[in-house]
Amino acid sequence: MLIRKSTLSQRSTVARLIAALERRELTIFAHIDHAAHARQAELSLPPIDVVIFGNPKAGTGLMAADPRVGLDLPLRMVVWEDAPQLAFVGHHDPRELAGSYELAEQKDTLDRMAELLDSVSLEAAGE
């Protein structure tokens, strides 16, 4: 997992992540607030959010090449709080999908996805 320390709070980092995705006109498929779900079960958990997003124009080509990659798509990022006012943004490197699936001919798409995730994580982390 690639991890970037945020200069912002966990909530601000999540807000900036969502804004960065919307600015790039990516589809946000889901936003999971794990701490909120834990509270509903009367449990305690520090803030942990997962945002699932993508661009069907990129993901569709990968799934057409190897439908099994649908298990790892769409893309996702996690933002968590390790201590008060100490937040991190994490994501997997999409280029690693080529090792698990038959995506050798999709290198350019995977490289663009990696660049996108790096750019979005920088923006979300306040850098």
UniProtKB/TrEMBL annotation:
Alphabetical list of Gene3D superfamilies matching this protein: TT1751-like domain
- Matches recorded under InterPro entries: DUF302, TT1751-like_sf
The protein depicted here goes by the name DUF302 domain-containing protein
Superkingdom of the source?
A: Bacteria
DUF302 domain residues: 32-94
